[in-house]
């Protein structure tokens, strides 16, 4: 079985790990859209729910990017 450890060093919050995973989903979907002209989000959820997923992926990407620059936007431990 694959070893699914936390991709971050130390003990990260569930929000941080979720943001990382959603960013990965967004990256994969974006790659599929370019490489195979396939939008996996709309294929799986339909166009109505896709907007909510895109909003969540965008917010997750912003949180992940901020974390990459050392910005603690979630107010975690100092």
Account of the 3D structure:
- The protein is mainly alpha-helical.
- The chain has 2 helices and no strands.
- The mean pLDDT is 82.
Task: Write a concise keyword list for the protein shown above.
elongated; mainly alpha
- Uncertain spans, ≥5 residues at pLDDT below 50? none
Share of helix among residues? 55-70%
Rg, nearest Å: 14 Å
Task: Give the SSE order as H and E letters.
Answer: HH
Q: Mean pLDDT, nearest integer?
A: 82
Number of strands: 0
The description of the largest β-sheet is: none
| Number of helical stretches of at least 4 residues | 2
Cα(first) to Cα(last) distance is 35 Å
Write down the overall geometry.
Answer: elongated
Determine the structural class based on helices, strands and strand pairing: mainly alpha
% residues in beta strands: under 5%
Task: Describe how the helices and strands are arranged.
Blueprint: H1 14-36, H2 40-68
Short structural description:
The chain has 78 residues and is mainly alpha-helical. Helix content is 67%, strand content 0%.
